[in-house]
Design goal:
This protein has one domain. The protein has 3 helices and no strands. It has about 110 residues and is mainly alpha-helical.
């Protein structure tokens, strides 16, 4: 008589225990997903904010240097002139069309062979 060779099947409790452990791992992964995603997003936002803070600090330093330079009387007078302010007794003249005049001058000078 030939004996049938049968493969051993694992016990039902062993299979059930394996599936239960896989289910627990999936549940743990599901529970960690949202906090982990929030953590990564927060780190990204923190790096953006840090870069913004560095940029604002550099801008503040530039403004402070500009303020220190503008406290002199000559600097204040230059800034007032740039804004179009005049001293009492002076006359303000506004000249328009300077770029067109310069272009015409270049064309005239260039036409005479200079």
């Amino acid at each position: 008589m030939a004996k049938r060779k049968r493969g051993r099947r694992p016990a039902r409790t062993s299979i059930l225990l394996r599936w239960l452990s896989v289910g627990v791992l999936v549940l743990v992964a599901f529970l960690y997903y949202r906090p982990l995603r929030t953590y990564v997003a927060t780190r990204h936002e923190l790096s953006q904010r840090s870069a913004e803070v560095q940029q604002l600090a550099a801008q503040k330093a530039a403004f402070e240097a500009q303020l220190a330079a503008s406290t002199s009387t000559a600097a204040l007078a230059r800034e007032a002139r740039r804004l179009g302010l005049v001293r009492p007794g002076e006359h303000l003249y506004i000249v328009k069309g300077i770029p067109a005049w310069r272009k015409a001058q270049r064309a005239t000078i260039g036409g005479h062979g200079r």
